Structure formats: structure tokens, C-alpha cells
């Protein structure tokens, strides 16, 4: 495979985003009964970063310039992601998604549940329609593994919320495994899917999955940080939400470990409190984090994951080496985002 | 294709049932977190008639004697069916399934929801593993259509429950379309799947789907009858459940139509009553049905569907013509069952 050193194709993120939005708008989500189909269009239209399909296109571009060929397949990763949001919102009893009422609020829980089921089935149907038939069996196999991982991650996440005793406390390693499953494997699959569609060799596609998984764990750690330290003016959701809900984030688990080492139990006491003023709790725990240097420790961990991700990407030989910069830039945007 | 007139292979229902139960017992439903995987094994072990996988094997046997080759694929129709039960039970808020607590009662709603999602993903994974790769694309396409139909049917069913006014009353034609989607298309798909796996031509497989759909509508009409007229000693669930819940069954819709024709509104009054004694309501409405000959009218309709189903089967030329009797016997058992 010869490297193309003379022709430098440019991947325009803006152009890709536009193509994706256009394609999402034209998804055939019509059918009867109307209320079964409407939530699909609704949740897909709420926006978001479209990170997963962009990763598909970025992965594709490492091997082939015609990323437009991969748009229809790329969209399906976003459909699957939005299916998980639909069902997660039911499980979390969440009233708001991206500033709008969640589907189970706008319709009802049964309709949102069933619409989610339909969306998952549509994921398979649309993958079969979009992916070239010779590549479909492998992609289906990889997707199923990924989708199973996402379910496992969500269940771990729900179970962790109930583990508040010292005897069965969540370990940091367990947490990292959970976010890998819940969030990172789908980012990994998206990059891998793009690579396979673009013509990558199996080993290359696997390496790109690793790139996506490592960046995905970093992405979630960044989310944990932002939930405490984001600028409330630009963040879009309530800062400190994880704290009031005793969410076992990397920050909280690291702080709990530090406390244990020093024999302190200020944080544990806040967690155990049944009645509290929310603002007071958020302020107090943020102060504990500050005293223990938790933000820096989490950033350090996050940066480690991103660095590992970049390293694999750099060492990987792909067809269009000059395209790596676009993927790296995109991952760096995720690493450095402020909201 | 030569008919085998000398060798009469026998399809043993008992043997097939045994093979299916064995295979279900050996399904790999292990994984972590345990609570995510346990409901799959739980609901699969609750038993049931295993009608769908039996139809796969019966369809297969029309074309090939080695029905054991189709057992692994057949099981997947039962996995999908049980996925729908898991989610339907959440939507219907049902406490009991086959005499045992439903999964969302035994665990919790979020776990049952997520287990169902996993089960649907497993359906695809196990189909890909079980079905020969050359037949897989067609089978996946047909399955997706069937699964979408099942979701549509469930949504129609839920919506019909809310349509209690005369202005938007459910029409009998709508009801028949609903049960076709909710129940019959999966029976049709099961027969079709068996036929395809056995080596049927596309037209033959489609005809067998029709056989399954018609018998499936008949099956549901029979269910409606049994819910009112079954022997309470052997029925397994409460007789008259549909009546107390104002379910728009074929019986109720037919009776409402008859009432309308005669200007009577005794039944409509019972439906509108907010407070009532359950036994009194069941007895009164059963009496209305008796007076209007509703049982006979429903049986007549049911028998029409079964007869149409048998007719298509009889006219269809299959490879092993002598095997048709086993399929017909099986469908007649469904038609004549008392529970």
C-alpha cells in the first residue's frame, strides 16, 4: 500500500457535520402507530455532538477519501446511542435531555420503552441496509459485542449507586471498567467501523478501536470533572449534579480513598446524610476535593488515557497518514472542551 | 424435486420438545453483572408451549428430515418472544407470568428493562451464530420486519385500551390488524424461518409465513374466547381478566357492534362504570355475550382463519408432502386446546 504524499486530502469537520445532520433529517422514521415512531425523530433531532458518527467518518478517512460513502453507516451509531439515551432516561427517571423533556415525559414510559425497542431493531435494519454485504457479518459481530458491553456498563453503573457501605465500596478499577463498557466501547466501535468500511486491515481496525476506547475513558473522566468544575453559565446542566446524587465518579472514589488513607471521614459523612441543603453539600464536597487535589489527580488520569490513545494512533500505519491529524485534533477537542 | 413416497419420516413432537428444552437449558446466559443476565435464564426457564420454535422445526421438516440442524436457530425465536414478554410485563405492570413473579417484580423495573434490551441484542447474536451464513441476510431482513411488526402491534394494543369513547371506538378490522402484528407475524416468521433453513423456495417460504399468520390470528381469537369461557380449574389464570380490564377483544368489539345495531347500551354502561364488583361485572358481561351469541360468532371467525391456513398448506407443494400432517396436527391442537 503506497502512501500518498503528494495529494493532501482535507477532512472538513464542518462539512462532515453538515452531511450527518442532513442525513439524520432524512432518516425514514415514519410509520404507524405515530406515537411509536415519533419519539425516534424527536430524540434524534435534539442534537448533541454527533461524536460517534464523526468518529466513523474520521476512521474511514484514514483509509479512503470518499467519507461520504460511510455517512449512512455512521448515522446508525448515533441511532444506537440515542436508543441507549431513551432507555437510560427511563431508568434514571430523568425529566430533561438536552434542555428538552425526555421522551417518557413527553409521551409516557411505555411508549418510550417500546420506541426504544423499535430503535434498537431499526439499528440492525439500517446497518444491514447501509453496510456493504461482504463486510456486514464482521461488523454485526463487533457491534453485538459492543452493544452487550454497553448494557453491562449501564447495569454496573446502576448497581454502583446502591453500594454505599464501606464493606462493598466501589473500587476505582471497577469504575474504570464500568465507564469503559458504558461509554468507551461504542466510541471504539465507531472508529473501528469507519476503519473497516474504509478498507483497513483487521489489525489496524482493532488498534483504532483501542484508540477510541482509551479516548472514550478519557472523555468520561473529563465529564466527571466538568460536572463539578464547569462554568455554570455555559455548562447547560446543573453543576454538582453528581455530588448531590452521590454518584461514584472518579473524583469521589479518589477522594474517598484519600480520606481512608488519612483516617478522615468528612466526605463519607456527607454521603451518608439523608437530609441536606443541596448547595451546601455541593460546596462542602467541592472544598474537600480542592483540599485533596482531586481535580488535578483526575486530570492527570484523564490525560494519561488520551496520551495512550494518541500514542497508538501515531504508531499505527494507515493508508492516508496525513489524515491522522484530523482525528487527533478531534480527540484533542474532546480532551480540552470546557462544556 | 422428487417426492419421497416410500420413506415416511416421522416427526416426533415429543422428541422435538425434548431437544428444545435441552437446548434452552444449555443456552449460554452467563455474564456479569449477574443481575443483568439472570432474568434471561429466569424467563426462559418458566416454560410455555414453545410454539414458535416448534413451528420452525415443523416448517423445516417439510423440506429436510434433519430437523435437529434447525434447533439452535429455532430457539432464537423463543428468546425473542420472551424478550417481548419481559418488556410487555413492564408496560402492563403485570405481577405474575406463568404462575411466577415477573422479572421486574423479582428484580426491579430498570433491571428487567435492561435485561430485555440485552435479550434483544442476544437474539441477533444467536441468530448470526446459528443460521448458515448464506441464508443469514435474508433471514435477518425478514426477522427485522417481523420484530418491527410486533412493536407496532404492542403499541396499537396499548392505544386501543385508551379508546373508550363512541367517537373513536376501535373497529373490528383494526383489532384483527393489531393481533396480526402483535402475535401472528412472529408465528408466520417462525414457519418461514424453518422452511428457509430446510431449503424451501422463496415462494414456498412466503406461503408458509401466510399459513403461520392465519393460524396466529386464529390462535389469538381462541385466546380471547378462553379468557371468558375456559374452565377456571385448568385455565391457569383468572377467567374474565379481559372483561374486568375492558380489553377490546374480538368478543367485546363484536358485542358492542351488536348492541349498537339494536340501540342497546348495557355493555357500554358496564365499560363506563368506574366502580364495580369484579365478579358481578364478569358475570353480567358474560351473560350479555351469551345472549348475543358472541362465543359462537368468535369461534366461527377463528375457524375461518384456521381453515384458510389449512387450505394454503394443503395446496402448497413441499418436498416432504407426508410431513404436512404433523404441522396440520399441531395447528389443530392450537385450534382445539382448552387452556
Low-pLDDT segments of chain A: none
Number of strands of chain A: 2
Number of H- or I-type helical stretches of chain A: 16
- Kindly provide the radius of gyration of chain A, computed on alpha-carbon positions and rounded to a whole number of angstroms: 21 Å
Task: Write the H/E string of chain A, N to C.
Answer: HHHHEEHHHHHHHHHHHH
- The CATH topology of chain A comes to Farnesyl Diphosphate Synthase
Q: Would you state the CATH class of chain A?
A: Mainly Alpha
The percentage of residues in β strands of chain A lies in under 5%
> What structural category do the secondary elements of chain A indicate?
mainly alpha
Q: CATH homologous superfamily of chain A, by name?
A: Farnesyl Diphosphate Synthase
Strand order of the largest sheet of chain A: 1-2
Mean pLDDT of chain A: 95
End-to-end Cα distance of chain A, whole Å, is 40 Å
Which word captures the global form of chain A? Answer: globular
How would a crystallographer describe the biggest sheet of chain A?
A: 2 strands, antiparallel
Description:
The structure is a homodimer of 339-residue chains. By secondary structure, chain A is mostly helical. Chain A has one domain (13-336): Farnesyl Diphosphate Synthase, CATH 1.10.600. Chain A is built from 16 helices and 2 strands. The first copy, chain A, has helices spanning 13-25, 34-45, 51-61, 71-91, 103-106, 109-130, 136-162, 172-198, 202-229, 232-235, 241-244, 250-262, 266-272, 278-292, 294-315, 324-336, and strands spanning 96-97, 100-101. Chain A has a two-stranded antiparallel ribbon. In chain A, a hairpin with a 2-residue loop joins strand 1 and strand 2 (100-101). Chain A is globular and about 60 Å long. The two termini of chain A are 40 Å apart. The mean pLDDT of chain A is 95.
Amino acid at each position: 500500500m503506497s502512501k500518498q504524499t503528494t495529494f493532501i486530502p482535507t477532512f472538513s469537520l464542518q462539512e462532515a457535520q453538515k452531511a450527518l445532520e442532513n442525513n439524520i433529517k432524512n432518516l425514514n422514521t415514519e410509520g404507524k402507530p405515530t406515537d411509536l415512531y415519533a419519539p425516534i425523530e424527536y430524540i434524534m433531532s435534539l442534537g448533541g455532538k454527533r461524536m460517534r458518527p464523526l468518529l466513523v467518518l474520521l476512521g474511514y478517512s484514514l483509509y479512503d477519501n470518499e467519507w461520504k460513502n460511510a455517512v449512512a453507516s455512521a448515522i446508525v451509531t448515533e441511532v444506537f446511542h440515542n436508543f441507549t439515551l431513551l432507555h437510560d432516561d427511563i431508568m434514571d427517571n430523568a425529566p430533561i435531555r438536552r434542555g428538552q423533556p425526555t421522551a417518557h415525559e413527553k409521551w409516557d414510559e411505555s411508549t418510550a420503552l417500546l420506541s426504544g425497542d423499535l430503535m434498537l431493531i431499526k439499528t440492525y435494519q439500517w446497518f444491514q441496509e447501509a453496510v456493504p454485504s461482504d463486510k456486514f457479518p464482521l461488523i454485526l459481530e463487533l457491534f453485538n459485542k459492543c452493544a452487550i458491553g454497553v448494557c453491562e456498563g449501564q447495569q454496573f453503573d446502576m448497581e454502583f449507586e446502591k453500594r454505599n457501605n464501606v464493606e462493598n465500596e466501589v473500587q476505582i478499577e471497577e469504575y474504570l471498567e464500568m465507564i469503559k463498557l458504558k461509554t468507551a466501547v461504542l466510541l471504539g466501535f465507531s472508529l473501528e467501523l469507519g476503519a473497516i468500511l474504509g478498507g483497513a486491515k483487521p489489525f489496524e481496525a482493532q488498534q483504532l478501536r483501542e484508540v477510541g476506547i482509551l479516548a472514550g475513558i478519557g472523555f468520561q473522566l473529563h465529564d466527571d470533572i466538568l460536572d463539578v468544575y464547569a462554568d455554570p453559565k455555559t455548562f447547560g446542566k446543573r453543576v454538582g449534579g453528581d455530588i448531590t446524587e452521590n454518584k461514584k465518579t472518579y473524583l469521589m472514589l479518589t477522594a474517598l480513598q484519600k480520606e481512608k488513607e488519612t483516617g478522615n471521614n468528612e466526605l463519607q459523612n456527607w454521603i451518608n446524610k439523608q437530609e441536606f441543603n443541596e448547595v451546601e453539600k455541593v460546596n462542602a464536597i467541592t472544598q474537600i476535593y480542592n483540599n485533596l487535589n482531586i481535580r488535578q489527580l483526575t486530570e492527570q488520569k484523564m490525560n494519561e488515557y488520551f496520551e495512550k490513545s494518541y500514542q497508538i494512533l501515531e504508531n499505527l500505519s494507515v493508508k492516508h497518514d496525513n489524515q491522522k491529524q484530523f482525528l487527533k485534533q478531534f480527540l484533542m477537542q474532546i480532551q480540552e472542551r470546557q462544556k
